Amino acid sequence: MLLVVVLAVLTLVDPAQSIWIPKCPVKLLTGLQCPGCGFQRAAHALMHGDVLGALRFNWFLLYAVPYLLVLIAERYFLRGKWQLKIRQWAEDNRVIWSYVVVYFVWFVVRNIYGI
User: Fold this and answer.
1) Are 78 and 86 in contact (CB under 8 A)?
2) 67: nearest Cα among 35, 32, 45
3) What whole-number distance in Å separates Cα of residue 29 and Cα of residue 46?
4) What pLDDT, in 10s, does the model give residues 37-92?
5) How many whole angstroms separate alpha carbon 51 and alpha carbon 64?
6) CA 85, 65, 19, 4 torsion: positive or negative?
7) Where do the H-state alpha helices sit in the chain?
8) 37: buried, middle or exposed (CB in 10 Å: 19+, 13-18, 0-12)?
9) Are 57 and 41 contacting, i.e. CB atoms less than 8 angstroms apart?
């Protein structure tokens, strides 16, 4: 439910123009872009059908959004054998650690190259 509300707000309000949408605390405190920086603007672009615009704001979405959708599907839409299989995959240590590694590599790369 909260996800629906957040997406509705991000559809109606442009985070780049609004003073009411919270800004990234990591960037405010350190000046560095965290791996999530640009997510709100990217979600706004996606809600308006601008996939390339969303990717310009944050390339990590290519990795994070599919994983997030799998987690949402497993939690809310799947039952029985499929839910168990997806949960075993999503909660596998190798999957979680690969996500963590990609997260931190993206953090370093985007701040070195200014992506």
Assistant:
1) yes
2) 35
3) 27
4) 998 999 899 889 999 999 999 999 888 989 999 999 999 999 999 999 999 999 99
5) 15
6) negative
7) 2-12, 25-30, 39-47, 51-57, 61-76, 80-90, 93-113
8) buried
9) yes
- What burial letters (b/e) apply to 51-71, b meaning 16+ CB within 10 Å? eeebbebbbbbeebbeeeebe
Burial of 78 (0-12, 13-18, 19+ CB in 10 A): middle
Q: What angle do CA 2, 68, 66 make, to 5 degrees?
A: 135
How far apart, in whole angstroms, are the C-alpha atoms of residue 30 and residue 59? 21
Which token pair is 86?
A: 């997806």
Query: What is the pTM (predicted TM-score) of this model?
Result: 0.76
Residue 96 in tokens: 């979680």
Residue 81 tokens, joined = 């054998």
